[in-house]
Design a protein that fits this description.
Two copies of one chain form a homodimer. Chain A is α/β, with parallel strands linked by helices and 335 residues long. Helices cover 41% and strands 15% of the residues of chain A. Chains A, B: This is Transcriptional regulator, LacI family.
């Protein structure tokens, strides 16, 4: 016999709504109540029927999140926030790691609808607007700047302004030879292009030259790439006194390379990143960075999906902007 | 019109098998060939039909991976390997983050079958054997030691032996006051219990006392928990000369707390972790650790799922063991 929420609620002596809150993982349930409900769920061996919950609306209650690589801390943190935000709508989130390969992202974007997913949130790395054209009405929300003029709703942050501000922070410290690590070929990363533009803006506004030899490309944005780029800057003899890394993992790699070269941070070289991942709050030294409001990004993405599901699927695509702030820590703190 | 693999193969001048390899993301395709196939896929706007590919076997070609928390680097790295291993079977992996909540894990384990998932890989944190009893024949493979005597296939590593070896490494360095960070209440973590047993074994074998005051519990295993546990050890006045942290993120937090206390690593306190996450290869100092063969764990898990799918679903559950090795780095390297 398959028990229903009502049976669980009766046994636990609480409302059906409370049982539903526990099952959906909402945090605002008192510990005592939660324990009582969990006991009742276990005693009755309750098995929720995902389909039934949403079938009245002709839905499955499941959305998918497609990400390029899961072991990028920023992506993993964002994924956690999307799961939390979706829970408020009673949605289960299934995550697909596309590996940054355009073909695999197309497989997900187009193929996943076969699984009766209600909607899709995509953190795209290589997807183009044309790829998304074949989606046949399954709502899609894009995270980030890629596919700027595509047909889908999207949540963005102002990468140019954020990059300008963090570079300006380095200038205000008195640094004049500010390197940049992270630019990519223009067909690879829109975020990279926008962050480079913000970096150049800040230099120009301060009357500093944009020096090609201080700009180190990085086709991937892992720690190893940041360490390699920093080493190549140091061996080239350009002697930066600060470096803006286009994400935090690049910056953590750069910190390591500077340590190996016997240089002090921030004494010899100040270092900043972008993303505010947990790692940078515990690194030695801790890392100054741009902190996008990840919780807000996730919330807006899920909200856009909900609006699209309940509203006009043919309405023009919307772009919502999420805020960011600078987090200034030891890597730019002069005593 | 919906094009098929055959049409793509004709246009690209390759075999259908090669197109299939590209679409499934296999790595052993020559770059030139891959580029030609990708061009043909784009020109024909090819949309794979996930269902059709597997329907002959009555399958969807999709497996799910349920994990407690995605922003634990070890979990994220393992997830990446599972996605890669599954691609060799033509499977798409959807990942569900259960948030370490038992109820949510039950929802996934029992509810996911409504979505016509072929099988499920679970990295369980709170799931019990009874929870899995209701799975009705959907093959499940468990990662790790939790649910030791459950009804499901599982992949394990020898946590006791690994913990003994890394503790023994500290003893061989001449350390005598070796702290442990990470024990949990017995109903929380089996890995914690086994690693504590290995730690105690090593002390006993070396004739060292097991000193309760050197053992700092941590109910969660994030950097902040490791930093807090290390601080409480330091302020309690027990003065360890080494510390075994039950995972790498705890150890990275401990490194930070030692740095803030003005202590040198490994000069004053040697530090080891467990998991070999990427972070520990770039931290200052780099981190000595136990490196489970994550690629092998993922491969075995997918293989067990495939065997179960094609074979006798009622056969007794199997447990396969994956190897590990010690990675010795700066945090235990005395000059």
């Amino acid at each position: 016999m398959r028990h229903r929420l009502k049976d669980v609620a009766e046994r636990a002596g609480v409302s059906v709504k409370t049982v539903s809150n526990v099952v959906n993982g909402y945090v605002h349930v008192r510990p005592n109540t939660r324990a009582r409900v969990e006991e009742a769920l276990a005693e009755l061996n309750y098995r929720p029927n995902l389909s039934a919950r949403h079938l009245r609306k002709g839905r499955t209650g499941v959305i998918a999140l497609a990400v390029p690589e899961l072991d990028i801390p920023y992506v993993a943190e964002l994924a956690r926030h999307v799961v939390t935000a979706a829970a408020a709508y009673g949605w289960t989130v299934l995550i697909d790691q596309a590996g940054g390969r355009r073909e695999q992202e197309r497989v997900v974007a187009c193929g996943i609808t076969d699984l009766l997913i209600d909607g899709l949130v995509v953190s795209p790395s290589a997807l183009t607007a044309e790829d998304l054209a074949g989606l046949d009405g399954t709502p899609v929300v894009l995270l980030g700047e890629r596919v700027e003029h595509g047909p889908a709703d999207r949540v963005v942050i102002d990468n140019v302004a954020a990059a300008r501000e963090i570079t300006d922070h380095l200038i205000k410290l008195g640094r004049r030879r500010i390197a940049a690590i992270g630019p990519q070929r223009t067909d690879e990363g829109t975020s990279a292009r926008l962050r480079l533009a913000g970096y150049a803006d800040a230099l120009r506004a301060a009357g500093l030259d944009y020096d090609e030899t201080l700009v180190a490309p990085a086709s991937a944005w892992h720690r190893a790439d940041g360490a390699a780029a920093m080493r190549s800057l140091l061996t080239s003899g350009v002697r930066p006194d600060a470096v803006f890394c286009f994400n935090d993992t690049l910056a953590l790699g750069a910190l390591r390379a500077l340590h190996e070269a016997g240089l002090r941070v921030p004494g010899d070289v100040a270092v900043v990143g972008f993303d505010d991942i947990e790692d940078g709050r515990f690194s030695i030294p801790t890392l100054s960075t741009v902190a996008p409001d990840k919780e807000r990004i996730a919330h807006l993405a899920v909200e856009l999906l909900a609006i699209r599901l309940d509203g006009d699927r043919a309405a023009p695509a919307r772009a919502l902007s999420a805020p960011y702030r600078l987090e200034l820590r030891e890597s730019t703190r002069t005593p």
